Amino acid sequence: MTKKVSFKILMFSLFYFVLMIWMINIGIYKDLILLSFMILYYFTSVRQLIAEYKTKMIDPANKIVIHKANMVNLRNNRFLSAYYELQKTLLSIIKISHLN
């Protein structure tokens, strides 16, 4: 991977690591389901980022076509559709808990 891609993945990982530590410190650790969703979200997102960048780097001439095809496949995948719904739910839970 290039330095640019590695840096983005590192920053993404660092952001979610800090977010999980912050959630534990403010007491959300009592809700283990939320914490487990955060951990699942963290690992699947990092894996998805790595796969996405590797796919883009396979064929530089057709990287846009390959990337668009991959995004269509991701949206059609049932697991990832449920995963995106989980993301929305998780973000709304975090917003609600942040208001309290």
Q: Descriptors for this entry?
A:
0% strand; mainly alpha; 86% helix; 100 residues; 4 helices; globular
Give the overall shape. Answer: globular
Oligomer: single chain
Number of domains: 1
Question: If you average the pLDDT, what whole number results?
Answer: 63
Our count of helices gives: 4
The radius of gyration over CA amounts to 16 Å
Distance between the termini: 42 Å
Tell me the total number of β-strands. Answer: 0
User: Which structural class should the secondary elements be placed in?
Assistant: mainly alpha
Largest sheet, if any?
none
Notes on the protein architecture:
The chain crosses the membrane at residues 7-26, 32-50. Keywords: Membrane, Transmembrane, Transmembrane helix. The protein has one domain (3-99). α1 runs antiparallel to α2 (32-58), α2 (32-58) packs antiparallel against α3 and α2 (32-58) packs across α4. Helices cover 86% and strands 0% of the residues. It contains four helices and no strands.
